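hey m, so remember when u said the tokens were messed up on ur end? i reran from scratch. heres the input so u can diff it against urs
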Amino acid sequence: MIDSAQITVRAGDGGNGVVNFRREAFVPRGGPAGGDGGRGGSIIFVASPSVNTLLKFRKGMVLKAGHGESGKSAKKTGKDGDDLKVEVPVGTEVWSLTDGDGEELIGDLANDGDVLVVAKGGQGGFGNTRFASSTNQTPMLAEAGEPGEERELRLNLKLLADVGLIGMPNGGKSSILASISAAKPKIANYPFTTLEPSLGVVYFEHDAFVVVDIPGLIEGAHAGVGLGHEFLKHIERTRVLAHVVDGSEPDVVERVRTINEELERFNERLASTPQMIVVNKTDLFEDPGQREWIEDELHAAFGDETTVISISAATRDGVDDLITEMRRMLRQLPRDADETERRGPVLRPQPVDSKRSVEVVEEDVYRILHPRAVRLARGSNLEDWTTLVQFQRRLSDLGVTRELEEAGVVSGATVIVDEMEFEWD
């Protein structure tokens, strides 16, 4: 099972605005007619039950959306870039990798149909029509399209299930899942038979709930010992834990206590998840009183209120009682509140903090960083004197001139914007 992947997403760039003037015979006062660029396509994740692993997200994969088209003459806007919609499994967390080893949770697609924009397409640039005014009837400025967002993402799949079967290897979890559902997990008489989580749907009267079988846990699982560390995350969303223990082995209480300590070390909240203890393999008991003795021992260790069910998955003795108890415990939980707690809040990408508009490169050399100013420089011909004058006026409107003056700019200083250098006047 592939439950983690790292990919790159690149949204489409916005199309460039254009400089154009209407010049037609017998049409006086044509004026500016440059259209805006189209919006770049966004990359959108959609949670779908038809996908159950992250297998298709191979290492180094890059997802790209379409770019917006440049504006047209006659004030026509360029075509928008196509969005890229990608189906991901229900239960996928999306983490944005930051500088260094940091990462930030930007979304949790925990329900069928959840939608998350993981990379937003760039806005199209304005054509010169947008810059026309009563004092500037021949605008020569146009904006380049805004770059689309680019992110390094880590996808983390946490299975959604109502009941999680946990316990040490060879306790019979897979046998129980096979006996209560139509799932067909691998069953064998050796440790770590289950190498990946298995899901099964249990139908009981008019109800149905999902059970997940987690690979066997051992001491040290929270720190990566055995197979547990990789799959412990899949029980973080479960509403009830069924702790399966082999009743034919010694030290039943100690083995239950060991795994519970591993759960708490991995995630403290798991310690408060409702739990039942399932004593399996009663068909192997040689003493008729062994069942009652084990149940009394477990109640004494974990409290009389602890639910203890003794069964034999091999002979189906007590299996119906187990299903009934699972349904009872699920029904006792306030589902809506519990869903929110186990899932956590759904986060959305936060806007990037606005950068400073001006950088002092060295004495009498300044670089303009204001995004709108940079896009104007890219979309306009600043080698034309008239265009350069209009550009400097626009810098004043954007507040860049004030920041340049505060930074110490004087006439004759060199100002850099994008790949263009000019002398400040």
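this time it looks ok to me. Residues 171 and 246 are 5 Å apart (CA to CA). if urs says something different then somethings off w ur setup not the seq
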